[in-house]
Write a structure and sequence with these properties.
The protein is an alpha/beta fold. The protein folds into two domains: 1-75 and 160-165 and 189-262, Rossmann fold; 79-156, no CATH class. It has helices spanning 47-55, 94-105, 111-124, 140-152, 170-186, 198-204, 238-254; strands spanning 3-16, 19-32, 36-40, 62-67, 70-71, 79-83, 158-162, 190-194, 207-211, 218-223. It has a six-stranded mixed beta sheet with strand order 6-7-8-3-9-10, sandwiched between helices. Strands 2-1-4-5 form a four-stranded antiparallel beta sheet. Helix 2 (94-105) runs parallel beside helix 4 (140-152). The longest helix is centred in the C-terminal third of the chain and has 17 residues, at 170-186. The model has no long low-confidence stretch (mean pLDDT 89).
Length: 262
């Protein structure tokens, strides 16, 4: 399987008043086309910086980022993004919010076709009947569903998700994990998920990258060999418990608490 995303030896630092702040140090990440890569690591280790580099919103100080065999040199229309805060526009209806990317990347597309595409996604995530509501009329979980639709409406090759479920309650979060699973079946895409939730990384991921402490490198890579149609019950199996134990130990190492690892 060919890699759709390749991050090769990327080093990056932010310029601060007190001097350079190294964030990434020779980072290597490869994500095969059509797979779901989860990225975990200590707070502040550079996970969000990684997503900005893939999206072309930043350029690395050293190293290269490639998508579809082309070096990333700027923002790309083939990348969709979803964040912890849905940032839906209150003066637009949910349908109008979802359509927004199509207005930008496909301005010549017929309005009826844009609407049909948006409604198709809203139906997939259970928001049929809410398309004419304003964002403030929806719950947090419903707004995040609408945000997912907006990030996928233009059929991006890559979906980048930066802790999209972090602010939600546990029940809503697990419900949205299942929504993501279903969306992947219906709308195949390559995804990079940044998360602090190890259960989320295993449930959604085909592979989990553990980043080291800042400046980050790829410390550990765990393949997730679980069925594509996995249900929440799989999180309570011995197999997943072993995976979570390994990931917790790797996070301790990344945090410099290796002495606490059994």
């Amino acid at each position: 399987m060919d890699n759709l995303i390749e991050i090769k030896g990327v080093t990056h630092a932010y310029q601060t008043a007190s001097g350079p702040l190294p964030v990434l140090d020779g980072l290597d990440v490869a994500v095969p086309e059509g797979t779901f890569a989860a990225v975990v690591g200590p707070s502040g280790c550079g996970k969000s910086t990684l997503t900005r580099l893939v999206a072309g919103l930043m350029k690395p100080d050293k190293g290269e980022v490639w998508l579809h065999g082309e070096r990333v040199k700027g923002p790309r229309k083939t990348v969709g993004m979803a964040f912890q805060n849905p940032v839906l526009l209150e003066w637009r209806t949910i349908l109008q919010n979802v359509i927004l990317p199509l207005e930008i990347v496909a301005p010549s597309m017929k309005t009826a076709d844009k609407t049909a595409r948006a409604m198709e996604l809203l139906d997939m995530v259970g928001l049929t009947g809410f398309e004419n509501k304003r964002p403030s009329e929806l719950s947090g979980g419903m707004r995040q569903r609408a945000s997912l639709c907006r990030s996928l409406v233009h059929k991006p090759d890559v979906l980048i998700m930066d802790e999209p479920f972090g602010a939600l309650d546990a029940f809503t979060r697990e419900d949205l994990w299942q929504t993501m699973r279903d969306l992947r079946r219906a709308e195949p895409f390559t995804c990079v998920l940044i998360t602090h939730d190890l259960r989320e990384s295993v449930f959604l991921g085909d592979q989990v990258f553990v980043l080291s402490g800042r400046p980050a490198r790829t410390q550990y890579l765990m393949p997730v060999d679980l069925p594509d149609d996995r249900t929440l019950d799989i999180l309570y199996t011995p197999e997943v418990a072993d995976m979570l134990h390994i990931l917790r130990d790797q996070i301790k190492i990344a945090q410099g608490r290796a002495a606490e690892v059994d």
